[in-house]
Amino acid sequence: MAGTENSVVLEVKDVKQWYSQRLTSKKNGKTVHKQTVKAVDGVSFSLKKGEILGVIGESGCGKSTLGRVLVHLEDCTSGEIRLFGENTSEMLKKDPLRFRRTCQMVFQNPFDTFDPRHTLKRILEDPMRLHKIGSSDAERMRIILDILEQSGLHPAEDYIDRHPHELSGGQLQRISILRSMLLNPSFMVADEPVSMLDVSIRADIISMLVKLAKEKQTAMVFISHDIATTRYISDRVAVMYLGRIVEMGETDEVLHNPLHPYTKVLISNCASLDPNEVRNVIEVSGEPPTPIDNGPGCYFEPRCYCPIEKCKSEYPGLVEVTPGHWVTCHCVQAADK
Amino acid sequence: MKKKHPVKAFFARVWATMLANKQLLVGAILVLIMASLAVLAPVLSPYDPYELTPELMKPPGTPGSNGAPIHWLGTDKLGRDILSQMLWGSQTSLRIGFIAASIAALVGTLIGGIAGYFGGRVDKVIVEFINIFVMTPSFFLILIIVAMFGSRMIYVMIVIGLTSWPGNARLMRAQAISLRNRTFIKSCQAMGESKLSIMFRHIIPNGIFPIVANTTMQISGAILTEAGLSFLGLGDPNIISWGQMISSGKSLLTKAPWVAIVPGLAVVLNVLAFFLIGDGLNRVIAPKMNANK
Amino acid sequence: MSLLDIKHVDITYHVGKKDVYAVQDANMSIEPQDALGIVGESGSGKSTLAMGMLRLLSERICTIDGEVIFDGKDLLKLSDEELRKIRWTEISVVFQKSMNALSPVHRVGKQMEDVYRIHRPNASKEEIRSRVIEMLKVVNLPSRVYTSFPHELSGGMMQRVSIALSLLFNPKLLVLDEATTALDVVTQGQILKEIMALQEQFRLTRVMITHDVSVVASTCNKIAVMYAGRMLETGYVKDVLVHPKHPYTQGLLKSFPSFNGEKEELRGIPGALPDLSVKPTGCVFAPRCPYATEQCRTSLPTLQTVGNQWQAACHQLGGVSNGGN
């Protein structure tokens, strides 16, 4: 589904990340029963060169866990991730530095992305030494100054001995992105990179991220709960609910013509800036559930506004409704036939 | 704004902290005085501490015979000058304190750091190991080891160090566990740094401060332990120490009380000084404790 | 007559030897049953203003000047005892993480009863209990919440409990400080809708403090835009958000990616927040403003009326008013 085999950067096949939790009895401290939190429960997709996939969903849907699993900050319970056809777990074992160069991550909290005791110079220099970027100290220094300059710190020389807490969130996040891009990764995960920043600086960070990704042909997974932002940055979007992708397709196709009831709910609840706009908010009952012991049926069925009989007993498969637009819903699939 | 030289700025900050925190200041002054006395012992001592003079068990202030210097703090039952013994003994006490506490800090930081950062099975095993050490009565352990291997000063220091690390290990483990989940550690991991490098370059430097404070307190503990050992007659007989002086003075408590009281007071003062610094540092780390005062 | 009148309020934090001018010369009036949204980014002073006018800031670390007239009384001049009587019974606040205010070892219902008893010490057990249960029902919570512990509730339910708690005494004024920020879109949508229904039902006057303009757009009728401690534009939502006059408001609105229409290039506002410990000589926004002139850098613009209860503080009003949307 992702075009010719050559241009596919990343293939994710049925990745699962389950955590087991022990509940202990209040009386005697013995394990009463074990439960499994299925944070990511069978996610598959593939990414082409330079393609940006937006992953949206509410908190607790497993999108951040998925991000960490993709760059192996956590090892997944089962499933397979392939980069250019090569299994990433094996790649990480064989040559960890090469894997880290190919796979990078930008984190949500720029204020905590760097060691608070290190100076900016050391923060930028250490990874360069590690990955043997730049042949001399002078060349590395030039790169460091260039990154600081691009992050909006003028004159850059004055900032090399500063510590991260002396900078603003926007500046730090720029440094974080540029530092990751320094390694020329083919694949990158951006986990809510702007959600902790002020609105007026978000736009520039996003533009920079997109520009760099397109320039260097980096495939990216952009994780966000902000649908409007995701729309700007991504070529395709995947909507996650309780650890599974419920709908995936071209960005505007999914966002303007959503098929899955959950996507519809999510989008209809997006507030607009225009006070005069009439909104048709679809309401759902109940609280967002936790990914524990969800039963055999569709996970969204208890909150769904249009469930059918089959939804209770069987989890729907991912079906391509129109070319490139995939959805997991019995209702939609029944209507399609 | 002009930026100060980093070293200068560091000392300025230390000074400001001390002024704001009186106990830290008092402790630091006391330790400074004692350290300089220990260093200057060869110059300041009026007598050779081992020299036997004809003045036996003389009270403080007795003049020496044949124009020898005054015994400012008196003499013991062999006629040795107590002031000189005190000065030389302070070297022993400080050395014991620093070396034993450093061993405890080093071992505790490493073991605690490994347990906390690596987690999982490694952590479980180490925690049990720590618990075993905590439950062992360490003073008796020291007694047994000294009885088995002899009472050379170096053994005493190592043994004290090796029995007092569990507290540090627990502190470091807690620090490492909370640091492990911070974004910057994940970011270093994503940048390709190895686990060992992350532990030594990020986890330990960022989590070491409580251990520094605890180590200062452990210096006083080590001094006390050595005094106890010497008091029981298990100290190194070839080296002058306060504990030994107290031990030899205990039988003279009625006839010549100063022989035991002077070194006793010195031990108390020393322990207090290091404790004040340690507690002061603890308050600096947790400013909330101050806010309520 | 307006319910709350804020006149020339300055709030200054004392941090070490420095003074931080967090709010300067804030003026606004809130009519009964208005819903005012105070919008600003971090460091704009929006929360400081709200906390300051209710005197919830420690007097050791800051000074507040000016007048805050609530229902004919100046809140800043009341004695602690008088203020205590007004707080919660006439003015109540819901914070972003108000769930942290609940004790984790006591049941929710019990804690709500305790709050009730503080202000009505003579109330009977039955009266208190029925009032608490009634309020839980008002915010659409199931009755089991009464006997639940805080950790058994989700974020959305906790925030509902906080709202129920704030409405115990039918206050005249409800201040919501980022009350829905930490919640998911769907839950936020539900709660905002409930808050608006409650406003009708209890004839509330509401102040919403938020960084999210879309929340204000969908739930408030008036808006005040703050930046670096100053109010830059105030007015009706349908005016300010549709044809913003102040360059900052315009820039802020352009920074929001839109859900519909063309994906034009996103434009943020270049630069960063000025140092709040330095009193600016000119307009606080001048260093980041695309239209700034010499006049903007040297003299302070005051709020000028540009429409029906619509004010903006900008020297270039004539020149930039067409630059909006």
Per CATH, the architecture of chain C is 3-Layer(aba) Sandwich
3D shape of chain B: elongated
- Averaged pLDDT of chain B, please? 85
What's the end-to-end separation of chain B, in Å? Answer: 34 Å
Q: Please provide the ordered H/E string of secondary-structure elements of chain C.
A: EEEHEEHEHHHEHEHEEHHHEEH
Mean pLDDT value of chain C: 87
Reading the helices and strands of chain B in chain order gives HHHHHHHHHHHHHH
Count helical runs of chain C.
Answer: 11
Beta-strand residue percentage of chain C = 15-25%
- Could you tell me the radius of gyration of chain B in angstroms? 23 Å
Radius of gyration of chain C: 21 Å
Strand content of chain B: under 5%
- What is the number of helical segments of chain B per DSSP (H or I, 4+ residues)? 14
CATH topology-level name of chain C: Rossmann fold
Distance N to C terminus of chain C: 34 Å
Low-confidence stretches of chain B: 287-293
Mind describing the biggest β-sheet of chain B? none
> Major sheet of chain C: order of its strands?
6-7-8-3-9-10-12-11
Structural classification of chain C: alpha/beta
Question: Explain this structure to me?
Answer:
The complex is a heterotrimer of chains A (337), B (293) and C (325). With 337 residues, chain A is an alpha/beta fold. In chain A, helix 2 crosses helix 3 (96-102) and helix 6 (169-182) packs parallel to helix 7. Chain A has helices at 63-70, 88-94, 96-102, 120-130, 137-150, 169-182, 199-215, 227-233, 251-256, 261-268, 330-336, and strands spanning 8-24, 31-48, 52-56, 78-83, 86-87, 103-106, 187-191, 219-224, 236-241, 244-250, 319-322, 325-327. The model of chain A is unreliable at 1-5 (pLDDT under 50). Chain B has a single domain (16-291), classed as MetI-like (MetI-like fold, Orthogonal Bundle). Helix content of chain B is 73%, strand content 0%. In chain B, helix 4 crosses helix 11 and helix 12 (242-249) packs antiparallel against helix 13 (258-285). The radius of gyration of chain B is 23 Å and the shape is elongated. Chain C contains 11 helices and 12 strands. In chain C, helix 4 (125-138) packs across helix 5. The longest helix of chain C has 18 residues, at 185-202. The radius of gyration of chain C is 21 Å and the shape is globular. Chains in contact: A-B, A-C. The interface between A and C is large, with 42 and 43 residues.
